[in-house]
Amino acid sequence: MDLSAAINLLSPFLLEHYRSIKARHPGEGRRRWRLRVAETFWGLPVEQKNAYLAAISQNLPSIEAIEDAEFTVDDDPLDDESDDAPGLGVLIRTDFTNDGAWQAFHTRLQEAEAEFASDAAGEAMGQDNDVAQVSGPSTSSATSSAAMEDDREGDDEDEDEEGIECLSSTPIFHVVNPVDPEARATLASISNLKALRLLNDVGVRRAPAPPQGTKRIKPPNRLVDHDGWQETYAGKTLWIYDAQSNTDQCVRLVSQTGTSMYGTATGDSWRARVSHICELQVNLAMGAMTIDFGGLDRWDYVERARNLEEAIQPLDPQ
User: Fold this and answer.
1) Is the peptide bond before 210 cis (omega within 30 degrees of 0)?
2) Is pLDDT at 230 greater than 70 in this prediction?
3) What's the farthest any 2 CA atoms get from each other in the chain?
4) Distance, CA of 303 to CA of 268 (rounded, Å)
């Protein structure tokens, strides 16, 4: 799994509870076991959550302990469609009613990926030519500080070139489009939250503080703020093709946490056109972009409401 999924405030709780949960529910897989541990965490009274925060603030586990823990290294049935799949992001088809519209979308996606890869390869070649033109014999007249600056710039250029070359040879998206009827039934019309729970790893963080004069949300919800905590997810970015995609040729871009603005929720989404999603995914993966709408709440409220309702449902419905 992506180790970024392990480095979160749920990790000490996982170290304490994951193994026993795993023993009680054999065969489920890492993500489901982590969700069960998180469910135990959310069931704690606020006083116990506060005590937990105070305890981990004084005694955080080492990075090595987290990296080697079962909740990090255990397999999951869907790793082949997420962590172990090629690509920077995962695009999931969740509507199977219009093959023609899907094929048109998928063709445009492949064309956009090919165009982006070609542009990246051309940029890498141009950088190679620039380096060849400026390379020359060193001179003793350069000052130490100038030489150090040149070294830093050279390192940055090397990193940029490696990133560009990687983009020209690696697919941007892994597409999940199952043929098996049972697999299609699992994915059909799923919410953003269910997609996150299937293909990302759960964690928690402290929720953003509400602005002065603003009350905390009621009723509390773990995707926004529950006793000052927020459920989060880590892994590859998820994009969802749904019934609306058949007509607008857009997909839902799913957020793995709320933004820094109080009131936004984990699992929020907005729609992005197929012609734009390659550039968006690459910029997100390289850390060159974050999406917060300049502090405005412009996420899809219908999908948020759906997620919030689903978040309070038990993992094992009766």
Assistant:
1) no
2) yes
3) 79
4) 7
Q: Fold for 78-134+145-200+235-318, please state it.
A: Rossmann fold (3.40.50)
| Cα of 274 vs its chain's centroid, Å | 19
Q: What rounded mean pLDDT belongs to the chain?
A: 85
Cα(239)–Cα(90) distance, rounded to whole angstroms? Answer: 6
Helix (H) or strand (E) segment spanning residue 7: none
| Residues in a beta bridge with 66 | none
The packing angle between helices 277-285 and 99-134, to 10°, is 50
What would the pLDDT profile of 87-117 be if each residue is shown by its tens digit?
A: 999 999 999 999 999 999 999 999 999 998 8
289 or 120, higher pLDDT: 289
What single-letter amino acid sits at 82?
S
pLDDT at position 205 is 95
Total residues found in the chain within this entry:
318
Extents of the domains making up the chain: 78-134+145-200+235-318
Residues 6+ apart with CB under 8 A from 155: none
Q: How far is the CA of 91 from the CAs of 13, 177, 257, 282, 295, in angstroms?
A: 31, 9, 18, 14, 27
Q: Computed from CA positions of residues 34, 28, 94, 3, in that sequence, does the dihedral angle turn out positive or negative?
A: positive
Which pTM value belongs to this model?
0.85
Neighbours of 44 (CB within 10 A): 15
End-to-end alpha carbon distance in the chain: 31
124-137 average pLDDT score: 46
User: Is pLDDT above 90 for 141?
Assistant: no
Residue 35 sits at the vertex; the CA angle it makes with 32 and 40, to the nearest 5 degrees, is 135
How many CB atoms lie under 10 A from the CB of residue 154? 11
